[in-house]
Design a protein that fits this description.
It contains eight helices and six strands. By secondary structure, it is α/β, with parallel strands linked by helices. The protein folds into two domains: about 200 residues, SGNH hydrolase (Rossmann fold); about 40 residues.
Length: about 270
């Protein structure tokens, strides 16, 4: 059993924009925080001297994570590795959850053979948003595989699908693909709970009710439809255009924490 309070250790985060932290910028503009940075900060409280690397890059497909990031993580010999990948694949029409699961299992097996505990993440339930919810069935099938892999390989599992608070649009940024700061905060809390860290907040707590007076409901409906149209124009259409050109938002983007270094450098 992996011990979250075992003292100094090493944590490496692998994946795509979800783990890079898009949608959760640092206030000073120095980059993206995200659930992984937030989780590492909590982990470091019980593990002073924790070393942390984040190799995740936006837009990465599962095979790219398995071929590029997993070997680098193995070479770092951390005791904990998080793996969240496959979402970008599932957005593509020809994606096969069964085939993706095979790639994911091979990646997990390699990490486990290297002696790493693996923190596996399922996919979100996309029922809240139009268009994206059309792939809900594929995500559900992929998640079934991920749960089985985590069980068979002795991994820790963060089940994002069951996090009802993430069904609230307020948990998401305007592009509807990346979590907002509050969404990343909730995921970090859930991950902390899964590894056995003490938490001071409850990720199950829903957002405050969003009440709309009856006289404003028609206006609110129209505003929501305008938001849908703006999202299609500003986010969905550019995404389709990138797919047609064969380019990714992650092209040329380096990992934000490529080296396994102390999260909080010791003061001199």
């Amino acid at each position: 059993m992996w011990d979250a309070m075992a003292g100094a250790g090493a944590f490496v985060a692998l994946g795509d924009s979800f783990t890079e932290g898009l949608g959760d910028p640092y206030p000073d503009g120095s980059g993206h925080r995200g659930w992984a940075d937030r989780f590492a900060e909590r982990l470091a409280v019980g593990r002073p001297g924790l070393r942390y690397a984040n190799l995740a890059i936006r837009g990465r497909l599962l095979r790219e994570v398995a071929d590029d990031q997993v070997p680098r993580a193995v070479a770092m010999a951390p005791d904990l590795v998080s793996l969240a990948a496959g979402g970008n694949d599932l957005l593509r029409p020809r994606a096969d959850p069964d085939t993706l699961a095979q790639v994911f299992d091979e990646a997990v097996a390699r990490l486990r053979r290297a002696g790493c505990q693996v923190l596996v993440f399922t996919g979100f339930d996309p029922r809240t948003f139009p268009l994206i919810r059309l792939i809900r069935g594929k995500i559900a099938a992929y998640n079934m595989h991920l749960r089985a892999i985590a069980d068979q390989r002795g991994c820790l599992l963060v089940d994002l699908w069951s996090m009802r608070a993430l069904a609230d649009p307020r948990a998401w940024s305007v592009d509807r693909l990346h979590l907002a700061p509050d969404g990343h905060r909730l995921v970090a809390l859930r991950a902390s709970e899964v590894v056995g860290l003490p938490v001071d907040e409850d990720w199950r707590e829903p957002f405050p009710p969003a009440t709309v007076p009856a006289r404003h409901r028609a206006t609110a409906w129209l505003a929501a439809r305008r938001a849908d149209a703006r999202w299609a124009r500003e986010h969905a259409a550019p995404w389709v255009a990138r797919r047609l050109r064969g380019v990714s938002t992650g092209d040329g983007v380096p990992p934000k924490r490529p080296e396994l270094l102390p999260l909080f450098p010791q003061a001199l």
